Please model this.
Amino acid sequence: MGKYYQPEIETASREEILRIQNEKIVKQVKHVYENVPYYRDLMDKKGVKPEDIKSVDDIKKLPFLSKADLREAYPYGLLATDLKNCVRIQSTSGTTGKRVVAFYTQNDIDIWEECTARAIVAVGGTEDDVCQVCYGYGLFTGGAGLHGGSHRVGCLTLPMSSGNTERQIQFMMDLGSTILCCTPSYAAYIGETLAEMGYKPEDNKLKAGIFGAEPWTEEMRRNIEESLGIKAYDIYGLTEISGPGVSFECEEQRGMHINEDHFYAEIIDPDTGEALPEGSKGELVFTALDKEAFPLLRYRTRDICVLTREKCSCGRTHVRMCKPMGRSDDMMIIRGVNVFPSQIETVLLNQGYTPNYQIIIDRKNNSDTFDINVELKPEFFSDIVSENLAKEKKLESAMRTMLGIGPKIHLVPPKSITRSEGKAVRVIDKRKLHD
Ligand code: DLL
Model:
């Protein structure tokens, strides 16, 4: 097997990709209009008929779907086929409100697994690899998605799920895992635990990691690559559109190729909904071109992103998306200033701290308070109060330069911040409790 899982489609010409997309969108809009009354109503209200959609250029005529629609239509309102044709459901990891429930036919699963197989082959995966999947199994799409792709490629699959880090490491060392799949925060934790157990990065057989499901910075990538002795690749996806593998990084590690034969991507202005030209920063919107059971059209992801069609030296022709710059709803507004957790992570890792931190926002006397607990590395730990104070001041000043406002930094002892085995919880916003 070469470096592509499906070379013909992954390196297809622009014309060929467009031809496939145009053919699929006409069929898909008809399928949705005929089978999903909820979306048919939205189209009728907008005065759009399936015949108006002749190519992907016409997608902008279609109405958007958002998380609010998914909540309203929960659980079956956006299902486009008989339940007897469905073989699986998966659900979002969200803990508040109604979960998103997505349905799959066997064909939907087959396509999804092909997408994750493309991601595994792009990081060098072959049937000689041992692929350790420590994304959560169950309703979350991470475990099932990478598991399916690993089987397709023919890797020896270790279905570990998340948690029990010492056991993860024992299997990794005993069975010689070569590819690790988990969230970046869990990868950092595995790296930290390996070092504590006395292992050096070169002691493991890992060569690559496929990390996603949460935002992570380039600094975090370097931290993981060094602690595990691997190349760390990004993978993106969302339950609503299938799961991991909507897009993935290649050896270039410069943006994720979107599987454009299945998912059509747009960037829109989040305030006006207007479609923006290539290269603009805005909200990522996806249309599933061939899903049967849960075919969302123009779904607003709330992820802020930029798309590029610049040629990639890997030979893949599919459009690339940058690392999502945080979700529009991840953004914190503190004393009127927009702050993203990724900015804080960048400062911490550049200053030699670990990726273990927690942001706490509250409101006192009608003013926002902004605190960050930052864990010290054992070797930086000091009993001398003045030394710690000086370190805190230095970090506060670096944060002020990056963010435009200054948080109060609290250095806390090593290991005092809870490690994440899935998606990390970085922000505690207590203001919401007062609202
Ligand atoms: O997180 C699917 C997934 C599993 C992706 C494993 C990659 C690996 P949800 O739980 O529905 O699905 O969450 C989707 O997570 O809209 C983004 O905000 C965020 N997200 C996913 N991948 C990335 C990434 C899975 N690589 C939401 N970088 C998405 C940044 C990501 N954010």
Notes: The first helix runs from residue 7 to 10.
